[in-house]
Design a protein that fits this description.
This protein has 8 helices and 15 strands. By secondary structure, it is α+β, with helices and mostly antiparallel strands. The strands form 2 sheets. Strands 1, 2, 3, 10, 11, 12 and 15 form a 7-stranded antiparallel beta sheet that branches. Helix 4 runs antiparallel to helix 5. The longest helix is centred in the first third of the chain and has 34 residues.
Length: 322
């Protein structure tokens, strides 16, 4: 076993190995308390052989992209329920006014009987219950529209009726909550990204049994009709971090990490590579947006897999020697 490991080390170019602490900048006592990890050293020829590419990653701001499935809703359902709610509220106001009228007449002895007043009060209670039911149903089915003011709701409904806007329900399968409410949405309509604005969270689960959002789409492409299903991407507010290629990010029992090239000492012909722990924010494009890298960190963006393999082999060799 020891012979095969040593042979592999020779093939790898006899890379140097030294232990280091992941807690950089700490004193020796704190450093000794931290677990040791391998510092791999390679000369220029060995770096070319394994394809090492190092770069300084600038800070970028990117929104999180959440994949969702969209369903174009029927505005007639919204208009119908909004009309039922308005009618129920108007009936409640009328019944309340009638109760007040009869109460005044009865109190002034102007001919209104107690029985008529009690009948009006019973009718008012019934109509009030109907109005409460209509309001609860509208809030459940159209929560983001219900949160608008009366004038805003009227403008929204008018735009839907005239065809200037579409309402789309965006469902995120497998998730029942969102930490940050997305601000915008992109609808994939035959390969064309159509923007939409997120109105808010839906209170009622859909067919996919996930969190749902109501999205308004202004000036949708012709032919995008009611009941159409299409893929969507929800965009949250922007996060700051560094974009690291997927192949350069590794994970172990202590979390995610990348490889950093250490600063070369005068006269040193070998470059050192060590682990830097990072926080994964979210997957973006072909990489991960991460936090935890310093301003001067030079990150290995290609060939990191070779460093990982060397570290594993070198670590096993030290264990065998021990």
């Amino acid at each position: 076993m020891r012979g095969s490991i040593r042979a592999l080390l020779l093939i790898a170019g006899c890379a140097a190995w030294t232990p280091w602490s992941s807690a950089r900048g700490e004193d020796e006592s704190a450093d000794a308390a931290q677990p040791k990890e391998a510092l791999v050293k390679l000369d220029s020829e060995q770096q070319r052989a394994v394809g090492i590419v190092v770069t300084h990653l600038p800070v970028v701001k990117l929104p999180e992209r959440i994949e969702a499935l969209g369903l174009v809703l029927d505005p007639a359902a919204l208009v119908s329920e909004a009309g039922e709610l308005a009618a129920a509220q108007a009936a409640e106001r009328t019944s309340q006014a009638e109760v007040e009228r009869l109460r005044a007449l009865y109190g002034g002895g102007a001919g209104a009987s107690l029985r008529a007043l009690e009948a009006a009060q019973a009718e008012r209670a019934k109509i009030h219950a109907q109005a409460e039911t209509a309001a609860a149903q509208f809030a459940l089915h159209w929560g983001p529209i219900d949160a608008l003011t009366g004038a805003q709701r009227d403008r929204e409904i008018a735009a839907l009726v005239r065809g200037r806007e579409l309402l789309v329900r965006a469902d995120v399968p497998g998730r029942h909550g969102l930490g940050v409410l997305p601000r915008t949405a992109l609808l994939d309509v035959d390969g064309v990204e159509v923007p939409g604005h997120v109105l808010g969270l839906m209170r009622e689960s859909g067919e996919l049994q996930g969190v749902g959002l109501l999205v308004g789409v202004d000036h949708a492409p012709p032919g995008l009709g009611i009941g159409a299903r299409l893929p969507m991407t929800l965009l949250t507010s922007e996060h700051s971090g560094r974009l690291v290629p997927r192949a350069a990010v590794f994970y172990d029992e202590r979390g995610a990490y990348v490889y950093e090239q250490t600063a070369a000492k005068p006269g040193d012909r070998q470059a050192g590579y060590r682990i830097v722990r990072v926080n994964l924010l979210f997957a973006a494009d072909e990489g991960w947006l991460v936090d935890g890298l310093g301003k001067q960190d030079d990150v290995v963006v290609r060939g990191a897999g070779a460093l990982w393999s060397l570290q594993e082999v070198l670590g096993q060799a030290v264990d065998d020697d021990d």
